[in-house]
Amino acid sequence: MGRALLLGLCLSAAPVLADTWPELVLQAEHPVEGMRGGNLSGLALCQGEMWTVSDRDDDQIYRLDTRYAEWQAEALSIDVPPPPESGLPWGVRMMHKAVSPLRGGDLDFEGISCDEAGNRYVVSETHAAVLQVPPIGEPAWLKIDPALVRQARGSGMLLHFNALFEGIAVNPQGTQLWLAAERERRGLLTLRKQQSVWNCEGGCVVMSEGGLEQPPARLKAKAQQKDFADLALFDGKLFTLERMAYRICRRTPATGAVERCWSFANDALTDARRYNSGYGTAEALSLDAKGAWIGVDNGNHIRADGEKRPIVWRFAAPQGGWSAKP
């Protein structure tokens, strides 16, 4: 084999570092007031309104009043019925049961999406379940094929406490949804609605992968487990929020294959926006044609500039739009 060909093969097999992706440009940041439990953990643009959830609040979701620079969270109280059996192993369930009284939030809402009819879908990490909140009427848990959790665990996902479902995306018709497994292993799963049941038609697992990833160089941090922090569906493509890599990636819905990624590290990691945390804080993602909304769950951490409220960043869409080819 010629040296040039060998070199080409080596280069094509080399991992792509986070810092090499095109950078998105920050247009605005919005502190969020009024979230009782803080911990903003999902975003969804539903019929022109922005909605969010907190992983500390089990009995309400929030509509965001976005008219001013500081956004105001307006709570919508929800009467949540008892969650269904999850199929998660005893050890994982017991860890969640022990921790929830200390942290607050038994359901651990980690993502929100919506369909064109105005139904909102909220994923519970602790119960591996999805709550549907209709525009009118009472919330109800989706009837999900038990094979979802079995197949996920068989592919190495949902094995560890606090590393379960972290994001959700629903198609406009409300007939298919995708879930993002957070880490160790991370992955994407899908369900299709058949009458009143959401089934693993042809298999639920779209992709599963493990391994380490190097954070942006300016963090001066060691490699971390690959993760997904949230999921969005836009223009027929899935977009994953990858917290430790500080990037958004466009993926093929059928396979989860990466088509293109964009970094948001430059503006997210300025000195003033740093948190004294060993982990990334970007937890929520929503897209439209003009840009991306990224929500920051700072937990109990205070930013270097003194800001302690949840934050939503607005990044401009990349040149050529979200469908641009590399």
UniProtKB/TrEMBL annotation:
Keywords: Isomerase, Signal. It holds the Pfam family Phytase-like. The keyword Ribosomal protein does not apply. The keyword Signal applies. Residues 1-18 form the signal peptide. SUPFAM superfamilies: NHL repeat. Residues 38-185 form the Phytase-like domain. One of its GO terms (molecular function) is isomerase activity. This is DNA topoisomerase IV. The lineage of its organism: Bacteria, Pseudomonadati, Pseudomonadota, Gammaproteobacteria, Pseudomonadales.
